[in-house]
Structure formats: C-alpha cells, structure tokens
Write a structure and sequence with these properties.
By secondary structure, the chain is α+β, with helices and mostly antiparallel strands. It contains three helices and nine strands; from the N terminus they run βββββββββααα. The strands form four sheets. The chain has a three-stranded antiparallel beta sheet with strand order 5-8-9, with helices on one face. It has a two-stranded antiparallel ribbon with strand order 1-2. The two termini are 22 Å apart.
Length: 120
C-alpha cells in the first residue's frame, strides 16, 4: 500500500501496513529518491531533498474491520543519515513495543486536519 497526496504524488510505500490480511496499525517507509514524478506531466518531487530520511507511521484503525483507511495517522520522520533507512524496521519494532513512547511524548508535535494537510 502507498500513501499518496492529492495530485498523485506517492509519498511512500507503507511496509508492514498489513499483517495476516489485517491493518497492523504500524508501518515504515521512505521518500522517493527521484527528483521528479509523473508520466504525462512531470512534477518536482518535494521530498527529494529528504530522500535519506525514514518514516514511521502509527495509526488508529477504523472501528469497521472491512475499512482499511485509518481514522488517524501519526507520521514520525527519522532524519536522514547513515543507516536510517536500513534500520527503519528496527525503529518500527521499538515504536510497536512502546519503547519510543516517552521520547515521542516529549516532542512538540503538531496536528493537522485534512484541510490543513492539503495545503502543505
């Protein structure tokens, strides 16, 4: 599964989003490392400068088990550097088992609603 924005840019693949055919509530991914995207219309990839970053996602699944669209997504950016992408699955394990909860609670997080996010 991919996370895409309006206009079609693929932000990232969502690895481990599904496990045993069900929404896991967690995933990891990374931005595209190509400078552009698109077939008919070529557009600049706004995430290209961040291509060495890694992403972690934690979501709140819908109460309807047949609905694969979560009601809330928490997006955590792992700043690029040596090994960030390589170790993303280990970071995901830490997120899943609660080992990152204290560090995340201490961060100044910002919430966006759907309307605000479409303007970013």
């Amino acid at each position: 599964m991919n996370l895409q924005v309006k206009g079609g840019q693929n932000l990232t693949g969502l690895k481990q989003w599904f496990q045993d055919g069900r929404l896991s509530g967690y995933a990891y991914g990374e931005p595209s490392d190509t400078e552009t995207y698109g077939i008919k219309t070529i557009k600049a990839n706004c995430f290209y400068p961040y291509r060495t970053d890694g992403f972690l996602f934690r979501c709140t699944p819908s109460s309807d088990p047949s609905n694969v669209i979560p009601t809330q997504i928490e997006w955590i950016v792992l700043k690029g550097g040596e090994g960030v992408k390589i170790h993303a699955v280990q970071y995901l394990t830490l997120l899943r088992n609660g080992s990152l909860d204290k560090a995340l609670a201490d961060l100044p997080l910002r919430e966006y609603d759907e309307q605000e996010f479409s303007n970013i």
